[in-house]
Design a protein that fits this description.
globular; Beta-Lactamase; single chain
């Protein structure tokens, strides 16, 4: 991880979950994350099979120059990646797998910014994994950041942050299609195994 936001959020989530696969969302204390809140978001399943933003921090919204609350997560991604990222979000929830994505944000006038996007599963009080706690952090601070909107994200890498769950995540049928070696080369997508202390 290259972003302090990603590192701090992952360590907090890891600490709260302890020996479990994932923590309960009621265990998350915003006060413990107050310095990170502008770059955090929460995703939830909707009734139509999509994944939408329940909450999004001010810096996340400013990156796209819009209020993301209620918006579909898939709409942040360019082209066919929208469907793939929807499937990744579903897998984070159903397989209880923490994932970090590398992505390039692109503006309409051709400017790029490298970002990290962390996705961490959360359980409801009934034990169902139905939300994702996440962070979206730019890896640099160009002068135009938050003055010129990013029009979308282009995923460049995926890292599973629990080595025991990597095979489960990548062996799902939709993951085979998305991350086969041929697709990986075409999309310039790198898949790395990670660890709890990554």
């Amino acid at each position: 991880m290259r972003s302090n936001t990603s590192m701090q959020l992952f360590h907090y989530w890891n600490f709260i979950r302890g020996d479990r696969e994932l923590p309960c969302r009621s265990e998350i204390e915003p006060s413990a994350l107050r310095t990170l809140l502008p770059e955090l978001f929460i995703l939830e399943r909707d009734h139509f099979g999509g994944i939408k933003f329940r909450l999004a921090g001010t810096h996340v919204c400013a990156l796209f120059d819009c209020d993301l609350r209620g918006e579909q997560f898939a709409t942040l991604w360019f082209g066919t990646q929208a469907g793939r990222l929807l499937q990744i979000g579903r897998q984070v929830m159903t397989q209880h797998v923490p994932v970090m994505l590398s992505a390039t944000g692109r503006t309409e006038d051709g400017r790029d910014i490298e970002t990290e996007l962390l996705m961490l599963p959360l359980a409801s009080s009934e034990g169902r994994s139905d939300r994702i706690l996440g962070a979206l952090a730019p890896l640099s601070r160009p002068y135009w950041l938050h003055a010129t909107a990013v029009s979308g994200l282009d995923v460049t890498g995926l890292r599973v942050l629990d080595p025991d769950r990597t095979a489960v995540f990548l062996n799902e049928p939709v993951m085979d299609e998305t991350f086969s070696p041929e697709i990986r080369r075409v999309q310039h997508l790198r898949v790395f195994e990670g660890g709890r202390d990554a």
